């Protein structure tokens, strides 16, 4: 076969006799062409046997020795002769080639591969591909391409090192060749070469490494799970518990340990080549997921009894709904998402209205089944939200990118916001008593963390600026105050002083007790998301 060279003959013979599948043999022979891997398994096995028969120098026998390195055992479990093939020094003396009457290798076509544990056998077949595609189709996702990911048992790395060690000695001592680990085709790469075309054909869309739709398979092999455990004793620093990991034997931890452990120590604890397993791997999970979709807009809040986010204290809900929920419930339903994350440019208190052009917000929709919406469909979705409640309204609803959301948060404290406050004073006032407020410009404040938010914000003194104020006299105890302030200013505390924690404040400026009765946000000066023709 054109993919293999004469120099590969001893490697092919050794690996076949030790229970290695044809595709793994190609990998260790450094065959970088995709075509051979995609051929039917039975054809590959037949062609490998034909390749071994063609020996111009020997009549049915390939003779070579594998020098026995310190502490290394060679176990050939799939040969008829068994232990008799090994001399007293553990040296492999002769391996018979395959002929019509020789059944030494016949069973290797049905044995579980000692290296890939069946990944490049059972799980490359049509039945498994159809199983994956049925899972994808039943999940009802919108997608125009896919990226395929696979999670392999970490013990596969141990088995590959075992094979690499024995082949390294074979190449160096007998053939005078060197085998570089980087030249060996990675198992994941070979598997994707085989599986991608089949998935593409069955799903009707191309495989694309940049696709937002992912099909993932998680493999496990319980029979050999403990094969990694000796590494934890040899390299304990490589295996540290992690909160989000069920086991310390992650693929990366095992690879790190394999890079660290000395070859002679490895061979003391693990057979070279690896033993043949009884069972194939199992596909623990077949999952689909779409990358998150981001929707942005601006909302107005007209209720003084509606929090921005769910108001829950000690597990008890205080109010039945929130701005976040009134918007997200419709988006979740239309996008068929698993969950969502809400963010906004600042927030208002439960009793504060948001008027004007509204407050910018963005919602991340996690793992949505539907991702394609036309402009008209987004307008219809916006109208659905607005018709569902008289407490809020949204505008400029649109799909945005993850990076675009950064515009909402960029330089947030440097932005300005405009408020309208209804102020009460204990002592009677006249119009001229408050007129001077209109002349105050760029008033600097020192605001210690308000008592009402001290339970969720760190204690600090924050410098904020009141850019301008405009007063409107109502009666002896009431006036309206319009303020343009630096974002992040606590307006309620600026009015009543918060027991002296905000200095100066309206009470100290007027030399009397002041309190705030109503507060409205009239504008949030963040030019995002772009205005649409609503």
TrEMBL record:
Task: Decide whether keyword tRNA processing is in the record.
Answer: yes
Q: Where is the Pus10-like C-terminal domain?
A: 294-525
Which reaction equation describes what this protein catalyses?
Answer: uridine(54) in tRNA = pseudouridine(54) in tRNA; uridine(55) in tRNA = pseudouridine(55) in tRNA
A GO BP entry: tRNA pseudouridine synthesis
The UniProt GO MF terms for this protein read: metal ion binding; RNA binding; tRNA pseudouridine(55) synthase activity
Q: Does the keyword Transit peptide apply?
A: no
Q: Which InterPro entries match?
A: PsdUridine_synth_cat_dom_sf (IPR020103), Pus10-like (IPR039894), Pus10-like_C (IPR048741), Pus10_N_euk (IPR048742)
**What positions does the domain Pus10 N-terminal eukaryotes occupy?**
113-288
One Pfam family from the UniProt entry? Answer: Pus10_N_euk
The EC category is isomerase
* Subcellular location, record wording: Cytoplasm; Mitochondrion; Nucleus
Instruction: Keywords in alphabetical order, please.
Output: Coiled coil, Cytoplasm, Isomerase, Metal-binding, Mitochondrion, Nucleus, tRNA processing, Zinc
Per the record, its GO cellular-component terms are:
mitochondrion; nucleus
List its EC numbers: 5.4.99.25
Q: Which family does it belong to?
A: Belongs to the pseudouridine synthase Pus10 family.
What NCBIfam families does the record point to? pseudo_Pus10arc
Supply the name of the protein: tRNA pseudouridine synthase Pus10
Organism whose genome encodes this protein: Crypturellus soui
Q: What is the lineage of its organism?
A: Eukaryota, Metazoa, Chordata, Craniata, Vertebrata
Gene this protein is translated from: Pus10
């Amino acid at each position: 076969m054109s993919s293999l060279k004469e120099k590969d003959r001893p490697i092919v013979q050794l690996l076949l006799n030790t229970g290695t599948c044809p595709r793994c043999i190609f990998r260790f022979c450094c065959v970088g062409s995709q075509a051979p891997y995609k051929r039917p398994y039975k054809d590959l096995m037949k062609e490998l046997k034909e390749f071994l028969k063609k020996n111009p120098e020997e009549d049915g026998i390939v003779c070579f020795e594998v020098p026995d390195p310190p502490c290394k055992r060679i176990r050939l479990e799939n040969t008829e002769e068994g232990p008799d093939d090994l001399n007293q020094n553990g040296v492999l003396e002769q391996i018979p080639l395959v002929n019509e009457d020789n059944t030494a290798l016949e069973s290797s076509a049905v044995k579980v591969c000692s290296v890939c544990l069946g990944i490049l056998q059972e799980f490359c077949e049509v039945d498994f591909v159809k199983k994956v595609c049925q899972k994808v189709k039943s999940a009802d996702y919108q997608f125009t391409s896919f990226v395929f990911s696979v999670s392999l048992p970490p013990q596969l790395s141990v088995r590959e090192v075992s094979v690499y060690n024995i082949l390294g000695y074979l190449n160096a001592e007998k053939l005078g060749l060197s085998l570089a680990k980087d030249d060996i085709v990675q198992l994941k790469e070979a598997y994707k070469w085989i599986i991608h075309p089949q998935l593409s054909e069955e799903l009707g869309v191309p495989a694309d490494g940049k696709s937002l739709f992912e099909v993932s398979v998680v493999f496990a092999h319980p029979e050999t799970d403990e094969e990694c455990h000796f590494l934890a004793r040899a390299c304990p620093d490589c295996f540290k518990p992690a909160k989000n990991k069920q086991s310390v034997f992650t693929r990366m931890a095992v690879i790190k340990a394999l890079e660290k452990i000395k070859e002679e120590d490895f061979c003391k604890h693990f057979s070279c080549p690896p033993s043949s397993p009884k069972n194939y791997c199992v596909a623990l999970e077949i999952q689909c997921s779409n990358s998150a979709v981001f929707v942005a807009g601006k909302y107005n809040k007209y209720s003084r009894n509606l929090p921005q986010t769910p108001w829950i204290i000690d597990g008890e809900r205080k109010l039945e709904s929130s701005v976040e929920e009134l918007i997200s419930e419709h988006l979740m339903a239309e996008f068929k998402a698993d969950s969502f994350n809400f963010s906004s440019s600042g927030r208002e208190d439960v009793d504060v209205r948001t008027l004007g052009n509204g407050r910018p917000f963005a919602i991340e929709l996690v793992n949505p089944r539907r991702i394609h919406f036309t402009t008209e469909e987004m307008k219809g979705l916006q109208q659905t939200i607005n018709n569902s409640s008289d407490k809020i309204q949204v505008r400029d609803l649109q799909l945005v990118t993850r990076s675009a959301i950064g515009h909402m948060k960029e330089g947030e404290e440097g932005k300005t916001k405009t408020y309208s406050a209804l102020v009460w004073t204990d002592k009677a006032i006249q119009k001229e008593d408050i007129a001077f407020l209109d002349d105050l410009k760029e008033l600097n404040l020192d605001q210690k963390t308000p008592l009402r938010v001290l339970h969720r914000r760190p204690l600090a003194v924050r410098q904020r600026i009141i850019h301008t104020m405009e007063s409107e006299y109502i009666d002896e105890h009431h006036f309206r105050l319009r303020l343009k302030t630096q974002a992040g200013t606590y307006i309620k505390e600026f009015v009543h002083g918060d027991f002296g924690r905000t200095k100066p404040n309206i009470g100290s400026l007027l030399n009397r007790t002041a309190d705030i009765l109503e507060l409205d946000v009239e504008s949030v000066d963040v030019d995002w998301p772009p205005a649409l023709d609503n």
